[in-house]
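Hey, I'm writing a tutorial for new members on how sequence and structure tokens pair up, and I'd like a real worked example in the thread rather than a made-up one. If someone can provide the structure for the chain below, I'll link this post from the tutorial.
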Amino acid sequence: MSKTKGFIFDYAKCVGCGACVVACFNENGAKPPIAWRNISTYNRQKVPLLGYVHLSLACNHCAEAPCMKACPSLAYSFHPTTGAVIHNPDACLGCRYCTWACPFGAPQYSKEEGIVEKCHFCYHRLEQGQFPACANNCPTGALGFGKIEEKAQPEAFGLSRRAIYPRISILNSEVINHTPEVDPSASGIEGGFTSKGNLQNAQQHNGIKEEWPLALFTFISSFLSGYIISFTVGNNFKFPVWLFAALAFSALLLSTLHLGKPFRSYLSIKNLKQSWLSREILLFGLFASTSFVAILVDVKWVYTISSVLSIMFLLSIEMVYSITKRRYITPIHSANTVLLALVFAAFFSQYWNVLIAILALKTILFIVNNGLKASKPTLINTIVGFTKIVFGFLLPFAMLSYSHSPSIIIIFISLIFSELIDRIIYYNDFEPERNFYNS
């Protein structure tokens, strides 16, 4: 196998001193709290006798760089002489999709600048025959730089198993198997401590707190998709053209709120060849425009075209989130956008039996996922879950099955309420894969 140059990290030598992090700051001028290189630690809580294992990681300049494939605006490129994966700040939207795609937590979002930044391999030093600053200043020799196998997939503790071929060679990762076993209850730490198999990293996903614009965007988009799909089988609840246009515009506006540089959103469809985010954005535009035309001309075949585009658009949304690590166990989430759209398609078409069947399926998925979660349920989660089940299934089922004249308005409001809750929960049921996962 041919050789390339990359990082060489030795678990047995790293003491977690942070010299590599400081050297990177001094060389490249990153502004805290952003650090282009980070140290993840097993036993971050410093439990006595448990032992310490550290992993120093920055961007590993993968041969099949997931950040480059994910980026909708083509803000990433390979440096022509060093092969470093370079980020172009002038092309960055601040969408943060690359931070989801990278399992090493290398691209990091700067709230101050509204864009992502990351390690560039100290390519200016490599061109002069020098080592990257971090490797050059490691006092224990744990982090080095040299020849490694090209397109090798290191199967080491703390690294992703995805075939992305990072330019790093890991030595002595088996040290994690030789740390002492300690009874969590004897640690004196509330809740015990991190189990073996994990490295803790400070970079965490904040769920709905930071993703709420996307939650509302995908919810409104699914609702509008269901409305358009209903016309292919017989819509019974038409609302004004202006209302559809207002909702579509609101969804578009919400999607830009997630961007650090919203005025660069015109760059977002440059990577249709590789990025599902680019495809999602293009398909949303096609769906919204054809739907508007369909409503104006009121011709069934135009509705059919728009419905097909809506399904393609919703599937692209699901593919956008396919790169994340799931916290749910079923093949699809109860808040799946296609299922959500079918709920409203059945409602607007007054196919009540179909509606009840879809709601029953979604409720089963919801109960299975929330009932089998490893974490202990909290009071608020129990209340939210109970509310979701009542308004998302029990109330509509009771009214449609046992009432001679069910209130369509009450059913509609209960569906809006429950499906929005489910969509919000979804954003707490996934997280980007980070280097502290051994999978």
